[in-house]
Amino acid sequence: MNVHKALISGASIAGLSTAFWLSKAGWEVTMIERARAFRDGGQNVDVRGIAREVLQKMGLEDQVRQQTTTEEGTAFVNEKGQVVGAFPVEGSDGMTAELEILRGDLARVVIEALPPHVHIRYGDWIEQVSNHADHVDVQLHSGQTETYDLLIIAEGIRSRTRDQVFGDRVSRNELGLNIAYGTIERETGDDRWWRWYTATGGRQISLRPDNQGTIRAMLAFKDDKHNLASLPHEQALAELKVIFAGAGWQDKRVIEGFATSKDVYFDYLTQIKMSTYSEGSVCVTGDAAWCVTPIGGGGSSLALIGGYVLAAFLSQQDSNESASISNGLDQYEQWMRPMVDKAQSLPPGTPDLFYPQTKVGVGTMQTFIRIASFGPFRKLASRIGHVARTKQELPEIRMAQTATTPQASL
Ligand SMILES: Cc1cc2nc3c(=O)[nH]c(=O)nc-3n(C[C@H](O)[C@H](O)[C@H](O)COP(=O)(O)OP(=O)(O)OC[C@H]3O[C@@H](n4cnc5c(N)ncnc54)[C@H](O)[C@@H]3O)c2cc1C
């Protein structure tokens, strides 16, 4: 029987999930990651819907549960910090999910579970791809040219290799929404709730607890013409300060905290839509293929699921048949696409409705939240967190007989 060889480019959630499962299926897996070392960091992500089943199959649910951010729910507050409506953790997929974890912690849990024969080469990336029906040649920045049966691009939203291979089959849907994330100090008065404040001018401030004794802050604003992520860091910070002046609630605390925070980063929310997830011997997964943005939600869940589904369909093929990989890739796309489409189809008026410009708009939103937080309405409102759910069963994965036990490989 042929042993297939895969190169996975990008070692975050999508790449790591794919490496985990593909190596279990008996593939020889090599990973490259542009960063020089394991990328820790990142704010809150969650594991929702059928991604919990993938995590259980990995045997990692307990480890994730032990490292959750301990958030107890989501509370919308007014300018004085008074709670307008509260949504405690109820069931698995409310506004605060049952499994909320810092991105870096989730990545570490998966990387430590990789079989020892999966190698990650840090500080390297692809310069050129030569894509053929039955193999792919990659020229790496480090100088080598290597040949694989399949190249899996898991490089996140700004993937260069994806753009090189798929060109105009990649489309971008900018949502006109800027978000600045950063870690700030915890203060007396901070509790274990996610506090969310909406100000006039399409501005939002949110503070979330973590399990590291700090607070994860977010400043978001709606403006189609202003893309802070495209500016030099110091300039973006300065503009953010101007935009949030007079926003109210804890605006000064967050702006001052961001001035000294080491991990502030800016995102200009953009959905990635691709007319195909594969061509020849190259495929895409995770944000590189279908970035849903925090507005759609579930990016990490879809990344975990994508890795499993891709490996499962590839494992079901007869490895001696020439069309086996392309059949597996087609099935992977057919399975993933409905779930991705659902996560990307935003309700009418989104995100504008959630970023009101006027006092009247903010008041209307608060009234809506107050009503939505009561009894039966609360369950209905919590459906906003129902992403990565599907009626489809996860495909079965055929594990290789030689799959080895997990071992740390950081
Ligand atoms: C450091 C970091 C912090 C993040 N913080 C948040 C957050 O706070 N909130 C949130 O909702 N989402 C965050 N995300 C995004 C979140 O991880 C993804 O939306 C989701 O988990 C899907 O993951 P992904 O693996 O598809 O993409 P990503 O997590 O974006 O990972 C892509 C990986 O590919 C690597 N890479 C990029 N280009 C190349 C290249 N040319 N060659 C090789 N490797 C390459 C990157 O270094 C990265 O490790 C963060 C991602 C990263 C990398």
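qc> The pocket of flavin-adenine dinucleotide is lined by residues 9-15, 32-35, 39, 41-43, 45, 103, 125, 154-156, 159-161, 181, 286-288, 294, 299-300, 303 (CB under 6 Å).
qc> done
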